[in-house]
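Subject: sequence -> structure tokens, single chain

Hey, anyone have a minute? Need the predicted structure for the following. Not urgent.
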Amino acid sequence: MRARIATLNSWKCDGDYDRRLTTMGDLLETLRPDIVLLQEVFAVPDKGINTALSLGGRLGMDVAYHAAREKPRSFAGSMVLSQSGMAILSNSPIIHASAIPLPTVAEDGERIAQLSVIGGDLCLSVLNVHLCHLRERRDLRQLQYAEGLGVLLESDPDRVIIAGDFNDNADSAWLTEAVYPDATPVRNSRAGHLDLEKTPTLIDPAQNATACLDHIHLLGDTAAVATLSHHGDTSVSDHCLVMAEIQWR
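Reply:
Had a minute. Here:
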């Protein structure tokens, strides 16, 4: 069984939001992923605005959205009470979706992971993550990751994808040396794709900062990555969309 998995930090309402929303949809229509994991999903319920629901409606995909990080943000010339949430879009039915509160600190704010079970031919368990952004708190990112993974493994899933904005590079020690619940082997889809191992996924137009922060992880040894690719530019988001085509035995 093959599946195309994409992850994208959708950059809240920054930049030209309306134009970016259109460009995001154009990119996804071109790439045709089976599952899309979104972070920093901008939503203003009072105004009927939700990046994930808009994209899901355009693409005809099931949507699971969970609100997070609610606060006033500047949008279209005024301040609005908005969310920076998490979402999973799927061409196959989403059977179950839930939010997992993660350990956090006041300087970083609320963090959740999003767990979803995808039905149909895919039969996947998916964990969507957006980990602590504080550079010096790799220990907290590791703790957050282990918390989400522990909840995921309680259901004893057969096929698993963990993806999102890890806020850390692929070669960071906590990603390569950490021990997770039940000594579960976790593999980064970048392994074996040397040209993309450290290729930036974050492109900050204000600071010209680059880092490889967005990853797709696999559990166990029953899956192989056929292709891995980066897509988009700041007309879409300040993060590249990362897509992996994965083959399960």
